[in-house]
Amino acid sequence: MRELISLQRYATFVIVALLAVVCFIAGFWASWVFLPFAMFAALTALGVHDMRQSRHAVLRNYPILGHIRFLFEKIRPEIRQYLIESDQEEQPFSREQRSLVYQRSKGAEDKRPFGSHELVYEAGYSWLTHSVQPTHFDNTDFRVPIGGSRCKKPYMASLYNISAMSFGSLSANAILALNKGAKLAGFAQDTGEGGISRYHREGGGDLIYEVGSGYFGCRNDDGTFNPEKFAKQAGNDQVKMIEVKLSQGAKPGHGGMLPAAKITPEIAEARDIPMGVDCVSPAAHSAFSNPMELMQFLGQLRDLSGGKPVGFKLCIGHRREFMCMVKAMLETGIIPDFIVIDGSEGGTGAAPLEFANHVGMPMVEGLTFVHNTLRGAGIRNEIKIGAAGKIVSAFDIAKALSLGADWCNSARGYMFAIGCIQAQACHTNHCPVGVTTQDPLRQKALNVNDKYKRVARFHDNTLKALGEMAGAAGLDNPCGFLPYHFMTRRGDGQMTEAADVYSYLREGFLLDKGDDNPIYRERWARANPHSFAPPEAQQQMAAQ
Questions:
Q1: CB under 8 Å to 503, separation ≥6 — which residues?
Q2: Among 252, 501, 459, 477, which Cα is nearest to 364's?
Q3: Whether 363 contacts 401, CB under 8 Å
Q4: Model pTM?
Q5: What is the pLDDT of residues 368-388, one digit of tens each?
Q6: Three-class SS state of 127
Q7: What ranges in 120-204 are assigned the alpha helix state H?
Q8: CA nearest to 93, candidates 415, 509, 483, 400
Q9: Start-end of H helices in 162-317
């Protein structure tokens, strides 16, 4: 089957080469065949060159045929302008967004002539307010310390890191390129819930070890958590932080399964699972079942890791449930070092349409709610917040920082940096550029030695742009962005400050008997640190 797929990819090249041979032979009887022979011979030479070069994965996987894509990229602005679409119409990422990543990752010119394409008087348009006294940054390697009072090994994290993507969902070459890029530029890569693979280790870059409900890399044979295996994984110097995945934005509340047929020996090694058996990620964790047990589990992981920063990632669903966790923090005294908020706009290799489109809270609302709840409980200063969800530009980072994030993560942005073309074939194993496939022939097209440099350049150039935006706002640090720095056009055409909608609430307000912020107070009153169930269900169970 693999050989058949390979032939299909090279079909155009094979046909052209055969036609060149046929024309060459026919030329002995008909001299007019010389011109077709010359054309097919030139195309054959081009195909050979395409397969031997290592810069463009599309051309390496699709010799000759891949040039059609690049041709359309060149003439597309004219076609689009008169016949099809604008730069902002493609989903989930526009051509403008993808082009920005490509340009910054290649170190190419990322400036734009002839003004903005944004409809600045349309509802939803957002902009940054700037200062008449701008500042300048010589060093744009912006960092944030992560680690509370009980953390023995705090980590100085970059403001822009690689979000969770597992080996298995990404190819070996993609993982290696991302990690080597993180090593070169000095930032971190989240392993995803698929465990730490040999390719993560080979790259040598900083890792955030994600522990999901399948406990891959730290599990018993029955799929439950194994403390000894976790301690061995977390004790590696390359691992800088531990992240417990409660849910992900693309499909919150949904488990997953990797069929046995797709499990390779390398995936089995990374996940510590047997070959020939379906790999299941349950929707819920087995190591804890209520908020108090969750906090105790986090405390256990912190101890087992030798005191490294420990936190959790989630997409906000029932807001009361997050307040249950915060109350458990206060009652146990176990405060996580960080929380990552994943928005429902997040991506994944495969998700049910209903989950991708309609389950979970978008990042902006989720981030605002978590930030203000922690402020209301008086513990915001002890916990750092990461944000993830379609963050690919300096403006995206700046806006997330203004809403309460301390740093940002990106998955698809860094995928674009290593050559993703948004083919949206991630779940088919037929990724045309070798990013999301386990086919060794397809992933071979992704040249690690070229792509890891692009990862580093994309990170560095994005932070450089962030420094320019912070400077334009007159700040001495990008972490100084606040909601009032951003304005938005309302549906009635008037403009409003982001602070009017996403303002910071009063520190400690949930702990007193005031009457402000009733929506927060109502849910806080119903939150129980000993159970995620709503009060009505708890009363019903007690009656039974």
A1: 483
A2: 501
A3: no
A4: 0.84
A5: 999 999 999 999 999 999 999
A6: strand
A7: 172-185, 198-203
A8: 415
A9: 172-185, 198-203, 227-234, 265-271, 291-304
